[in-house]
Amino acid sequence: MGNQLLKGKRGIIFGALDPNSIAWKVAVKAHEEGAVFTLTNAPVAMRMGAINQLAAETGAQVIPADATINEDLENLFTKSVEILGGKIDFVLHSIGMSPNVRKSIPYTETNYDFFHKTLDISALSLHRTLQTAMRLDAINEWGSVVALSYIAAQRVFPDYNDMADAKALLESITRSFGYQYGKARKVRVNTISQSPTRTTAGSGVKGFDGFFNYADKMSPLGNASAESCADYCVIMFSDHTRMVTMQNLFHDGGFSFTGVSAEVVERCAE
């Protein structure tokens, strides 16, 4: 049953696609910790996934919403407040997609129409979500918004392509909107920079297995799992982190601050 860290709290979880999704595991953990919430994803993604199975497991209602369309987001927040019986306490933004990555277009040959879509879906959708919530006054004071990021926002991972730029923008929006929302309504906004994780989306990045294995060898604790990321998200939704905002929080087993590991040195010396 968990520790009921989220008892009495209401939320919205974006991006659960299948049991491999971090958002899926966050929903399961939030349910165990006593939260009630709605689930949402873009209609096209919902047709590819199994979100209705998750809804049945957690007692959540599903509200389709394209996070690049303001009207969809307005409907999502309005209906969520109505269904859940009050304002929202937490939001998980787990949204990311790059047509350039999907079509294996090299970064130096970026299709700019695709690039605009990458930024709109993977980063500006957070701004739209926050703007909509703020305009509707849909999130309670001391509410928590968490978006999922990756260290490619700060360091070069060549095959991460234009998603690196999108994550950098995502983190910038977190700081800028986090300041405004904190001043206006005491709502906190943070990103969690997760280890490479074997999700449906993550595994689609060229060279993912190399990313994954290298990070695992570099990190003193190894790669953080999707389950442990869900635990961290729950802590960020809870009242125990009320004074944390505008931060990019690394959840990566120590990878982000490790210059080199003994395992990598040994491998390079062979």
Overview of the structural elements:
The protein has 270 residues and is of the alpha/beta class. The protein has a single domain (10-269), classed as NAD(P)-binding Rossmann-like Domain (Rossmann fold, 3-Layer(aba) Sandwich). 46% of the residues lie in helices and 15% in strands. The protein has a seven-stranded parallel beta sheet with strand order 3-2-1-4-5-6-7, sandwiched between helices. α1 runs parallel beside α3 (51-58). It is globular.
Labels describing this entry:
Rossmann fold, 10 helices, alpha/beta, globular, 270 residues, 7 strands
Order of helices and strands: EHEHHEHEHHEHEHHEH
How much of the sequence lies in strands comes to 5-15%
Q: What value does the Rg take, in angstroms?
A: 18 Å
**CATH architecture tag:** 3-Layer(aba) Sandwich
Overall form:
globular
**CATH topology group:** Rossmann fold
The top level CATH class name: Alpha Beta
Number of H/I helices: 10
Task: Summarize the amount of helix as a percent range.
Answer: 40-55%
User: At the fourth CATH level, what is the homologous superfamily?
Assistant: NAD(P)-binding Rossmann-like Domain
Largest sheet: 7 strands, parallel
- Beta strands, count: 7
- Which class best fits the helix and strand makeup? alpha/beta
How many domain units?
1
Gap between N and C termini, in Å?
49 Å
Unreliable stretches, pLDDT < 50, 5 or more residues? none
Strands in their spatial order, largest beta sheet:
3-2-1-4-5-6-7
- The mean pLDDT is 94
